[in-house]
Design goal:
Order of helices and strands: HEEEEEEEEEEH
Number of helices: 2
CATH class of the largest domain: Alpha Beta
Number of domains: 2
Bound molecules: heme C
Strand content: 15-25%
Distance between the termini: 30 Å
Largest sheet: 6 strands, antiparallel
Helix content: 10-25%
Strand order of the largest sheet: 1-4-5-8-9-10
């Protein structure tokens, strides 16, 4: 059993059957959550002395004050549950950038059947969305070039052994008009931090900071810079 994500861990953020999980680390950020720990009258108040999940309890294995560790490995169901927990706050964080795509990307097709760990994107759990214009992504190695207007969006999050789910950056690729950038096969790479700060964007602010995206993606130049995800996680 992976530490922190055990079925009997009261703070298991993946315990889908427990929407009222008082230790749900995502609950605090959600004002509509019935388990909002700030609601004084809330029966799920994690600070209630009698609450076995009291995060303030010194011997609580889920104590959020305990030093974090490496990301954990999750089963497919656990990874999906962790994502369900954080997806709304990912979107609202990225939206502070004003980027036009972050408002809608979660309604696009997600070509990942579950969030998976991507070593090349910070070792975080990631998804792979494509807009309708970019739907040939789903043909994978047989796709041919991406049409102009294709947008690929990869959001990300981390999960610590104590069950804490944290927001990670958004990785965006947009296929621009021919001639936009010969260094990147006309893709515009954008890295948006969880708080909405734009780390860099090809041809725009801090373009040099995202040069490494195009450099690595150029390895698959013959696939129009798209790597595609591991077959095990591909939507067919
Ligand atoms: C060291 C190599 C490397 C770097 C650097 C890198 N990527 Fe990727 N990228 C990959 C690989 C491999 C995949 C496919 C597997 C995966 O998701 O991990 C991928 C997938 C993607 C995808 C989904 C489309 C596809 O290619 O299948 C997007 C979007 C993306 N990366 C954006 C970015 C952005 C934006 C940056 C820079 C901030 C970046 N990547 C940096 C290797 C890299």
């Amino acid at each position: 059993m992976v530490p922190g994500v055990g079925a009997c861990n009261p703070c298991n953020p993946c315990a889908a059957a427990s929407p009222c999980n008082p230790c749900n680390p995502c609950a605090a950020a959600n004002p509509c959550n019935p388990c909002n720990p700030c609601a004084a009258a809330n029966p799920c108040n994690p600070c209630a002395a009698a609450n076995p999940c009291n995060p303030c309890g010194a011997c609580n294995p889920c104590n959020p004050c305990a030093a974090g560790g490496d990301d954990v490995e999750l089963s497919g169901a656990q990874a999906k549950a962790a994502y369900a927990c954080i997806r709304a706050s990912l979107k609202s964080g990225y939206a502070k950038s004003g980027n036009q795509w972050v408002k809608s990307y979660q309604s696009w097709t997600n070509y990942a059947t579950q969030p998976y760990i991507s070593d090349t994107h910070g070792g975080r759990f990631v998804n792979n969305y494509a807009n309708a214009r970019g739907s040939n992504y789903g043909l994978y190695e047989n796709a041919g070039p991406a049409p102009e207007g294709t947008v690929l969006a990869k959001d990300s999050f981390s999960v610590k052994p104590n069950g804490k789910v944290g927001a990670g950056p958004m990785f965006l690729m947009e296929k621009m008009a021919a001639g936009f950038s010969s260094d990147s096969q006309d893709w515009r790479y954008t890295l948006i931090m969880p708080n909405g700060q734009v780390f860099g964007t090809t041809g725009g602010k801090n373009s040099d900071k995202v040069g490494f995206c195009a450099e690595c993606h150029a390895v698959v130049e013959d696939q129009d810079s798209r790597f595609y995800l591991d077959e095990a996680y591909r939507r067919k």
